[in-house]
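Feature request disguised as a bug: please show the residue count (220) next to GNAT family N-acetyltransferase in the output. Example input:
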Amino acid sequence: MIEYRRPEMKELKGIAKMSAITFGDYPIFHEFSNEFSDMDSFIDLMSEVQHVYLKAYYKNADFFVGEENGQIKSFAVLIRPNSSKVSVFDYFLSGAFKLLRKASLRKLLKLLNILEEGHGPISEIKEQSWVLESLAVDKSCRGQQLGTKMLNDCIIPYISKQSSGTKETFVTFTNTERNKKFYLKNGFTEFNYTPIERKGTTIGNWSFRMTIDPARPAIN
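Example output, currently without the count:
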């Protein structure tokens, strides 16, 4: 049985590696990964990038892991409405300078630019919405519906309980057809499609939303 909890800071490095492996083959990263001599080197850097990112967000976002028999099989990062923005200073405090040992500043800025393009369509409603910033399942556990379970058994009920009595807007985005189908299957509605153009290649970039009702108060 999957149990959900907030991960400890010391677990973020392992989660970062899982995230890098999960997202490493996504189209949005192809231009960046092609600059590396092999995929292992790229995944190694992406693991470090993800670790910095997770540490920077750890205090200002809600983190969840899905665990079974002591093994973390899924994780998610959920950003609250009107939450404090993570600054460049936060990234440096979380170890961003160390990334320069493995990649040039030019490469890191290119990666940041790619990620910013993906976020673009949801930026206008981001402040007033819950944002699913990241949802990943260990590659060895794919096909077990763990992403669906985390959404429906953990994240959506959590948002519902956190509501102050009003409906909540929940948004996310992806650039793969597979994930597009996943979000539509799980109750999201597509509200924007703004493809990203990179050196003659078109990358899909879909944005989704759903409305979550507040939890009903318990009856004594």
